[in-house]
Amino acid sequence: MRRNIVVGNWKMNNTIAESIELATAIAEKVGAAKPDCEVGIAPTFPALHEVGKALEWSGVKLAAQNCHYENDGAFTGEVSTRMLAAAGCSYVILGHSERRQLFGETNEVVNRKVKKALAEGLRVILCVGETLDERERGVTEEIVTAQVAEGLADVSDITELVIAYEPVWAIGTGKTASKEQAQEVHASIRGTIERLYDEQAAKHLRIQYGGSVKPGNAAELFGMPDIDGGLIGGASLKVDDFMAIVEAAG
Ligand code: PEP
């Protein structure tokens, strides 16, 4: 059985003090609720270490929102996987559509990051998803399959990997994929993993849905057979909304 996983992506929100306050509130509620699902939060880089300390006792995992694929050196503004691991991160989110669209990350760059993060012992949440134009042109499956295959090129072991399917048109827009639309793409991703790896790998892979998940739609999405929790943006900044989503996941 796959264990659902819910991760809050805080994006570029919250100062260090605000992050500690929000993380502490989430840690307390998760500690009291003891959900069956795995829970994580991804604050900004400056807040990682302090938030990690606030989460330590609670079992809530610390995630980073990005990384570089080199260990160190002349890469102004970048942060390496080695630094993230030392800051207490267990997960790193890679290939988020905002990184792809606003910062020009290609499948090749994402693949370098995936390989580096896994080699460093971090777990990876690999984000994939089509734009509205791609959906309307009927190439969703083609685009998502390429993102998965190219993002995982030369990755032999995906035990520590989670995939997040996030249709770009549903991120931060209030538009959610219907549970059937999401399930269709999740099933296709699982099929791709079976072709690239094997049946066991496909069966064990957790595939989160992301894109305007809210307390009101989380349960129906997470109830679909190939949806194993969510990657949550806006709703992860409000303790009660995030907790309602965590509870919907288990
Ligand atoms: C995200 O950025 O990963 C995301 C899913 O955002 P939102 O929930 O705000 O759509």
Automatic annotation (TrEMBL):
<dbReference type="GO" id="GO:0046166">
    <property type="term" value="P:glyceraldehyde-3-phosphate biosynthetic process"/>
</dbReference>
<dbReference type="InterPro" id="IPR022896">
    <property type="entry name" value="TrioseP_Isoase_bac/euk"/>
</dbReference>
<feature type="binding site">
    <location>
        <position position="172"/>
    </location>
    <ligand>
        <name>substrate</name>
    </ligand>
</feature>
<feature type="binding site">
    <location>
        <begin position="9"/>
        <end position="11"/>
    </location>
    <ligand>
        <name>substrate</name>
    </ligand>
</feature>
<dbReference type="GO" id="GO:0005829">
    <property type="term" value="C:cytosol"/>
</dbReference>
<dbReference type="InterPro" id="IPR035990">
    <property type="entry name" value="TIM_sf"/>
</dbReference>
<keyword id="KW-0312">Gluconeogenesis</keyword>
<dbReference type="Pfam" id="PF00121">
    <property type="entry name" value="TIM"/>
</dbReference>
<protein>
    <recommendedName>
        <fullName>Triosephosphate isomerase</fullName>
        <ecNumber>5.3.1.1</ecNumber>
    </recommendedName>
</protein>
<dbReference type="GO" id="GO:0006094">
    <property type="term" value="P:gluconeogenesis"/>
</dbReference>
<keyword id="KW-0324">Glycolysis</keyword>
<keyword id="KW-0413">Isomerase</keyword>
<comment type="similarity">
    <text>Belongs to the triosephosphate isomerase family.</text>
</comment>
<dbReference type="GO" id="GO:0019563">
    <property type="term" value="P:glycerol catabolic process"/>
</dbReference>
<dbReference type="GO" id="GO:0006096">
    <property type="term" value="P:glycolytic process"/>
</dbReference>
<comment type="subunit">
    <text>Homodimer.</text>
</comment>
<feature type="binding site">
    <location>
        <position position="212"/>
    </location>
    <ligand>
        <name>substrate</name>
    </ligand>
</feature>
<dbReference type="InterPro" id="IPR020861">
    <property type="entry name" value="Triosephosphate_isomerase_AS"/>
</dbReference>
<keyword id="KW-0963">Cytoplasm</keyword>
<comment type="pathway">
    <text>Carbohydrate biosynthesis; gluconeogenesis.</text>
</comment>
<dbReference type="InterPro" id="IPR013785">
    <property type="entry name" value="Aldolase_TIM"/>
</dbReference>
<dbReference type="InterPro" id="IPR000652">
    <property type="entry name" value="Triosephosphate_isomerase"/>
</dbReference>
<comment type="pathway">
    <text>Carbohydrate degradation; glycolysis; D-glyceraldehyde 3-phosphate from glycerone phosphate: step 1/1.</text>
</comment>
<comment type="function">
    <text>Involved in the gluconeogenesis. Catalyzes stereospecifically the conversion of dihydroxyacetone phosphate (DHAP) to D-glyceraldehyde-3-phosphate (G3P).</text>
</comment>
<feature type="active site" description="Electrophile">
    <location>
        <position position="96"/>
    </location>
</feature>
<dbReference type="GO" id="GO:0004807">
    <property type="term" value="F:triose-phosphate isomerase activity"/>
</dbReference>
<feature type="active site" description="Proton acceptor">
    <location>
        <position position="166"/>
    </location>
</feature>
<feature type="binding site">
    <location>
        <begin position="233"/>
        <end position="234"/>
    </location>
    <ligand>
        <name>substrate</name>
    </ligand>
</feature>
